[in-house]
Amino acid sequence: MFRPEIKVLDCSIRDGGLINRWQFSDEFVRETYRALSLAGVDYIELGYKASKEQFDPSVYGKWRFCEDEDVRRIVDGIESGSKLSCMVDIGRVQEKDIAPQNESPFQMIRVACYVKDITKGVALCDMVMDKGYETTLNIMAVSTNTERELDEGLNDLSKTSVPVVYVVDSFGAMYSEDVTHLVNKYRNALPGKIIGIHTHNNRQLAFANTVQAIIDGANFVDGSVYGIGRGPGNCCIELLLSFLQNPKYNLRPVLKLIQEHYLPLSKKIEWGYIIPYMITGVLNEHPRAAIAFRDSPDKDDFVKFYDMLTTPEVDISAVKNLA
Amino acid sequence: MFRPEIKVLDCSIRDGGLINRWQFSDEFVRETYRALSLAGVDYIELGYKASKEQFDPSVYGKWRFCEDEDVRRIVDGIESGSKLSCMVDIGRVQEKDIAPQNESPFQMIRVACYVKDITKGVALCDMVMDKGYETTLNIMAVSTNTERELDEGLNDLSKTSVPVVYVVDSFGAMYSEDVTHLVNKYRNALPGKIIGIHTHNNRQLAFANTVQAIIDGANFVDGSVYGIGRGPGNCCIELLLSFLQNPKYNLRPVLKLIQEHYLPLSKKIEWGYIIPYMITGVLNEHPRAAIAFRDSPDKDDFVKFYDMLTTPEVDISAVKNLA
Asked: Residue A49: pLDDT above 90?
């Protein structure tokens, strides 16, 4: 596939931080930035911007906050043609946390929200666009929305100036036919806007679904190094770069990054194909029950987990530490 | 997807044996058979039938040979509606190794061959059909054949009584569009025959490609427990059963089998998403270089492997133990 409009965004630090509360070493983030720059990735997302009034900096690492001075220190001295991105959630960031773009190392601030909060998400997009940033709106968990809810949200969104809207398979529940249906729906409802795709790998479909979205016309595509991300993780950016025929992309620096940093990390924190996440994907459910289960002594008792989620009379609160 | 004609074949012991020379314990094979029977899997493939004159039984485990008395001992006392299958390769089995079907525990003997050997493959299919077995012909490595070669082979095959012909993505090199192209080609060239699909997971596309083949009309589909199989392995049968809506299939026994037997085994022998196999998949090459590399001290030096396979001046024989 070669289509020059396609932009690749790496979300390794941002989505991977959901596993380890963004406690990555500076070296890890710096080497990620260096390798992805060499690889020609268009956007590198370094975390969330969030208010320190809401998240305790003694618990969460610096990529939960993405303060501009931390970012400058990481990227200092590394040649890069990539743009920097961070993400914000509704209600978890304040306007004062976001500097004007011309004073910030970030070029893009992405907004994540649920369908019910689209108008709030648009307001946040407007705020960051007013400050000079590029933006996208990532509508999460649409596999759980009715068609009517989603159509209404997209109709509202069509009247705004948000330039990029993402199809997000938050629960790793979609098949390629679902992706095709949604990308076509978004394209039809949102004339003039660019469609993005962000997938999760619960059922080993993240890469396949991303390819399908590209075939269907999505031009913003997310990946992460070695698939890092909460639970099953995301679409592997090394697979994505091997698929895209654009000569500006280069696989080799990503392979080096994996062997030197991501493979060792994968032995300390877990992500990938893990049966409880496969089960939540099949059931189209939030991974929170699987996250809690993987943190319990029964973490490999897949049948127990399956029974809990599929047998109505079993009380799910029986899972210790349920988030 | 519900289509009653679809038959699921599990090849865990046969393809998984390529990792460990078929050195599975009797208990492991017996519990695999028990669980897959409970899961409602249509065919369970227990290994290869091969000549002991060609393979040393002190090196290869009993599932390299699949002698009828070994199989009877394994299945004895287990209630099952599943049929038993084994596979034969051209030139690696003799007629005297194969009893008449009414004296054997096997109902099916599958034949694997390359396009250039289709006539030999058909002769072997005819031999086992004459003895009373069901059969399939699995044409390997078609991602490396020219269209003309393949068309000629399929034309020859169309004139035979082989009932089932498989599209096999031996190198894990196919995208869903390739699968659609080949399934349609086989269906058009082979009227009256059933099409099968066997995938490899080098690029995390085994399940997605199997789903695509089913959508395109394939009715024999291979999977393996937890994806076990050489290198990246195969389509996970637990994913396949979760996709197929046929009430005769039951996911729960497979989850139990994974937690009790396949998860522990996966810590002793390796299969799954492993970068050197990803690279051979991207390059549409036999995994042999990756197999040798994973057995070398440099096994995690992905950049070295990538350079070896993509830089013409590097001598690939520099990989120690290259098979």
From this structure: yes
Question: pLDDT tens across B76-97, in order?
Answer: 999 999 999 999 999 888 899 9
User: Using CA atoms, how far apart are residues A190 and A167, in angstroms rounded to an integer?
Assistant: 12
- In whole angstroms, what is the distance from residue B42 CA to residue B237 CA? 12
Q: State the angle between helix axes of B206-215 and B176-189 in degrees (0 to 180), rounded to the nearest 10.
A: 40
- Domain spans in chain A, listed from the N-terminal domain onward: 7-266, 287-318
Given B236, B252, B278, which is nearest A204 (Cβ)? B236
Which residues fall within 8 angstroms of residue A303, CB to CB, at 6 or more apart? B252, B255, B256, B259
Residue type, A308: M
Beta bridge partners of B9: B43, B222
Which CATH number is correct for A7-266, 3.40.30.10, 3.50.50.60, 1.10.760.10, 3.20.20.70?
A: 3.20.20.70
Q: What is the pLDDT of residue A245?
A: 87
Q: Give the whole-angstrom CA distance, residue A204 versus residue B206.
A: 8
CA distance A128 to A107: 10
Cα separation, B104 vs B19, in Å, equals 27
Alpha helical stretches, state H, B61-110: 68-75
What's the pLDDT score for residue B313? 66
Q: Locate tokens 């009517």: which residue?
A: A148
| Assembly ipTM | 0.95
- Determine which of A174, A177, A224, A259 to mutate to test the interface with B (most B C-beta atoms within 10 Å): A259
The CA–CA distances, whole Å, from B251 to A278, B33, B75, B209, B247 equal 12, 14, 21, 20, 10
Q: CA A70 to CA A84: how far, in whole Å? A: 13
At residue A289 the predicted structure's pLDDT band, cuts being 50, 70 and 90, is: very high
Residues of B in contact with A301 (CB under 8 A): 259
CB nearest to B239's CB, from A204, A227, A307: A204
| CA atoms of B304 and A246, how far apart (whole Å) | 23
Average pLDDT over residues A270-275: 98
Is it the case that residue A311 has pLDDT exceeding 90?
A: no
In 3D, which of B280, B206, B178, B222 has the Cα closest to residue A203?
Answer: B206
CA pair distance A174, B121, nearest whole angstrom: 39
DSSP string of A192-227? TPEEEEE-B-TTS-HHHHHHHHHHHT--EEEEBGGG
Cα torsion A257, A263, A265, A266 to 10°: value is 140
* Cβ-nearest to B275 among A208, A255, A272: A255
Query: Residue A196 carries which side chain, given as an amino acid letter?
Result: G
pLDDT tens-digit readout, A223-266: 999 999 999 999 999 999 999 989 999 999 999 999 999 999 99
pLDDT confidence of B315, banded at 50, 70, 90? low
Q: Tell me what pLDDT residue A323 has.
A: 40
Residues belonging to chain B? 323
Q: Which residues from chain A sit within 8 angstroms of residue B263, using beta carbons?
A: 300
Q: In chain A, which residue ranges form alpha helices assigned H by DSSP?
A: 12-20, 26-38, 68-75, 118-130, 147-158, 176-189, 206-216, 237-243, 252-257, 263-266, 275-282, 288-294, 302-310
